[in-house]
Q: What sequence folds into this?
């Protein structure tokens, strides 16, 4: 059954069949501009409100919610109608508010260092299940006196393996929630057909590629899909993307102690970056510990050192603040532990 944010305007008009035409705009505006519950739309007759509460069911039921001490990071574990679970993380920074959303329940890509990869694939999320994560985060941001301005597809799942629904969600976020395409970022493990397709879209969203290794032997180990789309093929797609879009591309690099944080790794990364027609930007994230992966993240001084090496090699890199590690809230990490530690909402 389609959920509240799965419906497009035509489908909503179907639900509102028999009502005056302007009701479609009223309800659409209520859902996307006011971020309201249908039952709270006081411009509608009471009977209609009650009917809509029934016929436009929400997709997500909060199972657990955890916030860091200052309330700068909020992480939700949601249950979907069929019991599948996904995570969403809201992050308030000094100058912006960002939500990290899931695109699939689980992930089939099998990256060993990733908690979602360790758990395996459950199912695709629908467009509405993705959009509702953003709506809920936007509601919370508003309650916190902030405006949600950025969305990153860096939660559970591989967005390019659920392309159509993710793209429909992107369009909805852009057109109806008013989030600028330049503030939307899709992160991919390197599914080349998805990158090539993204290059043909007209909304200028940002692309992040999770690289983690700049030689095929190591990348095959860390990111198994590299065997299907090796670095030469991936880089060719990235180069074409840059030529088509002229937009900045970023690489994600989770620093794993003694594995991809050596001087040779920095050198290989710099060489790879030099093959691109535009400079790439590297985001360094110290690996978060997960239950199924023994190696720890690079310690703080090693992270700083790696960034310096890159800078000396002419590669721009920033160290991504590891938000909310005290609540296991970092993006891209399904922390099963939230179930144990998070308190139930309400
Ligand atoms: N599947 C997509 C998007 C979700 S993962 C992708 O892989 O890009 C979002 C980011 O979190 C990716 O860069 C991923 O490599 C990273 N990540 C996964 N597990 C991590 C961990 N344990 N510590 C740090 N980053 C991690
Ligand atoms: Fe999937 Fe991304 Fe995790 Fe790899 S890192 S298993 S692609 S979610």
A:
């Amino acid at each position: 059954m389609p959920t509240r944010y799965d419906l497009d305007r035509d489908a909503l008009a179907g639900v509102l069949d028999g009502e005056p035409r302007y009701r479609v705009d009223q309800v659409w505006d209520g859902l996307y501009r006011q971020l309201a519950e249908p039952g709270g739309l006081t411009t509608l007759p009471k009977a209609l409100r009650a009917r809509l509460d029934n016929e436009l069911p929400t997709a997500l039921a909060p199972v657990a919610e955890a916030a860091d001490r200052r309330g700068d990071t909020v992480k939700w574990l949601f249950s979907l109608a069929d019991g599948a679970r996904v995570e969403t993380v809201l992050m308030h920074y000094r100058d912006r508010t960002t939500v990290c959303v899931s695109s699939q329940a689980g992930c089939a890509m099998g990256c060993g260092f990733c908690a979602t990869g360790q758990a395996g694939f459950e199912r695709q999320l629908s467009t509405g299940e993705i959009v509702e994560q953003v709506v809920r985060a936007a509601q919370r941001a508003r309650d916190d006196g902030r405006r949600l301005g950025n969305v990153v597809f860096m939660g559970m799942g591989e967005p390019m393996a659920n392309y159509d629904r993710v793209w429909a969600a992107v369009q909805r976020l852009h057109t109806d929630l008013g989030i600028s395409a330049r503030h939307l970022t899709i992160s991919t493990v390197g599914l080349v057909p998805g990158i090539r397709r993204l290059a043909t879209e007209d909304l200028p969203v940002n692309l992040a590629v999770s690289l983690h290794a700049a030689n095929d032997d190591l990348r095959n180990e860390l990111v198994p899909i590299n065997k299907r789309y090796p670095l030469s093929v991936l880089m060719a797609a990235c180069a074409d993307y840059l030529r088509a879009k002229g937009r900045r591309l970023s690489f994600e690099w989770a620093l794993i102690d003694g594995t991809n944080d050596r001087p040779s790794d920095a050198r290989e990364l710099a060489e790879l970056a030099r093959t691109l027609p535009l400079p790439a930007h590297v985001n360094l994230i110290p690996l978060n510990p997960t239950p199924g992966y023994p190696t720890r993240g690079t310690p703080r001084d090693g992270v700083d050192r790696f960034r310096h090496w890159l800078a000396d090699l002419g590669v721009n890199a920033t160290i991504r603040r590891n938000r909310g590690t005290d609540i296991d809230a970092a993006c891209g990490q399904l922390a099963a532990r939230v179930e144990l530690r998070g308190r139930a909402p309400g």
Residues 4-55 form a domain with the DNA polymerase; domain 1 fold (CATH 1.10.150).
